[in-house]
Amino acid sequence: MNNSAVKLSKNYFDAIEKNGYIVIDNIGNGSYGNVLKVKSKITKKEYALKLISYGTLSREKNAFREIECSKKFNHPNILQYYEHFFDNQQLNEQTKCFYQIMELCKTNLSLWLISDEGINRTDEMCVKMFNDIALGLKYIHEKGFIHRDLKSDNILISYDGKCKISDFGLSILHVQILGNESQFLTRGTLIYTSPEQLELKPYNFKADIFPLGCIFMQFYTELKTNYELFKAVNDLRRPQLPQNFFSKYGNINIFNKL
User: Fold this and answer.
1) Do 141 and 204 belong together in one domain?
2) Which residue, 15, 82, 155, 237, is most buried by CB atoms nearer than 10 A?
């Protein structure tokens, strides 16, 4: 379980129900807390609820940044935000939290790649899914934002098979990093971090392209463990393609379809 996951007490369930939702299941842990499957008491529609906990200033900034970014985005390949709410009782405790209602998805890309469907993926499936991700990232950049934590864990897959980019806690407007050296510190998940960020150099929208390339590599490379993923990404940094790239999935003609 993620270190930032919240131990779910009756108070949390009461706060969720007070705001019009019923908890169905605990479906995972995000960067800042639990992710629950909930149902609206009014519409009976099911949603994902992220219970975001934060006890430090940096976590608080990231949590509120995710809300502000999500509210600005409206695209079929971006996870849909609906609303958020607070619980005044919890806000008085040492660990604060609030609740974010989002679109409910089936799984994330990391899990899908090692599922039965993912293991037997076809060129057509990979092209469609990667195109979804690229369109979502293009939209984020057109809105002036850099994601800064793009990775397969943060790509969710909807029940109708669309890929959707999620988790905007580290996202930032490009104009906010111009002339601000403190923002050049390494952000996001280390294995996916762009070379310019690792070297603490000034960066821009292109910082999201290296992790996008890593995700493309994951579609077309058979990776069974995190170690294999780490080794494959290190190969890309040299730069060279992993040894088993295209050995099981796809062929070189795939580039003509993208």
Assistant:
1) yes
2) 155
Name the domain count of the chain: 2
Residue 17, domain extent: 10-102
Residues 234 and 247 in one domain: yes
Q: Two tokens at 58?
A: 């940096």
Q: Say how many CA atoms lie within 13 Å of 225 toward its Cβ.
A: 3
Instruction: Give yes or no: residues 128 and 252 share one domain.
Output: yes
Higher-confidence residue of 246 and 146: namely: 146
Is 16 a member of any domain?
yes
Per-residue pLDDT tens digits for 172-187: 888 776 655 555 555 6
pLDDT at 21 exceeding the cut of 60: yes
More confident residue, 171 or 39: 39
Active site residue 149: yes
Which of 107, 113, 168, 110 lies closest to 143 in space, CA to CA?
168
- Residue from 132, 149, 167, 208 carrying the catalytic annotation: 149
- Contacts (Cβ under 8 Å, ≥6 apart) of 174: 144, 145, 146, 204, 205
